[in-house]
Amino acid sequence: MPVPVKRRVAALREVQEDYDKLMKQFIKERAELQAKYEQQAAPLMDKRGGLVAGDEKVGTYDIADSDEPDEGIPDFWLTAITNHDLLGEYVSERDAEVLSYLADVRVASLTGDEAGSFRLAFSFRDNPFFTNKVLEKTFYMENPDEIVPEKFVGCSIDWAAGKDTTVTVTKKKVGDKKSKGKGAVTINQTKPCDSFFNFFKTPVVPENPDDLSEEELEALQQQMDEDYEIATAFRESLVPRAVEWFTGEAAPPLYGDEMDEGEYGDFEDEEPEEPPQRRKLTQ
């Protein structure tokens, strides 16, 4: 590279550094602005919660009267979540029973040194499944301009006996084979299973990824990718427009809903968009 070009490249690097500093300040102030408007929206979210619970009075809205009791909107959040094209895939039948007690979901953007990070809080009514009133998960960004968190912090769930939807329980008889079943005892064996509530677990990332096998590393990476995908769906899609997911209005239409019979629409050969790059765990 010629000397004059090297000097100009060095000058360009200085410009880039100044630009990066400016963008970091922008992202920090953007996070503070987002947090400010989330606080201003809090009364609206409180009103939404009151309407769902049946505590907030409503007008007639030109809807004919009936003798039905007004007890709020049963299964509001459960319906909204299961209607969601991504989130619904993670809800099992056992999860649905628990989520029927979900009273509210809130998003909080963090500020200051934690700008860009955010927390999800799920509030539950009293239920027979666990004693927690609120389940939280926080996603911390290493830098405000990162699109993937550095650290995920979940919470422990205080499940009632036999109510944990993240495991299956099987009974097994254990005894001395020589005794031909005499004196055998029955024990419960638990095995992890798919569940929406696995989302609240904190992924355990070792300081040295070399301590994990390739299969363990891939499983951990998949768990972290799924956790962040779920969190983003709640933050950017379901929580802001919960009523539209409840009614199904926000759900993407099927091809048949938009096309006449025999028509398949105009599909152009376009390059697919590259998805955001996930933080990779390397060995």
Structural summary, described in words:
This protein has 283 residues and is of the alpha+beta class. The protein contains six helices and six strands, in the order αααββββββααα. Strands 1-2-3-4 form a four-stranded antiparallel beta sheet. Strands 5-6 form a two-stranded antiparallel ribbon. The longest helix is centred in the first third of the chain and has 51 residues, at 3-53.
Notable characteristics:
single chain; 283 residues; 6 helices; 6 strands; 36% helix; disordered C terminus
Topology diagram in text:
Layout: H1 3-53, H2 76-83, H3 93-99, E1 102-109, E2 118-124, E3 134-140, E4 151-153, E5 167-174, E6 185-192, H4 214-238, H5 242-247, H6 255-258
Antiparallel strand pairs: 1-2, 2-3, 3-4, 5-6
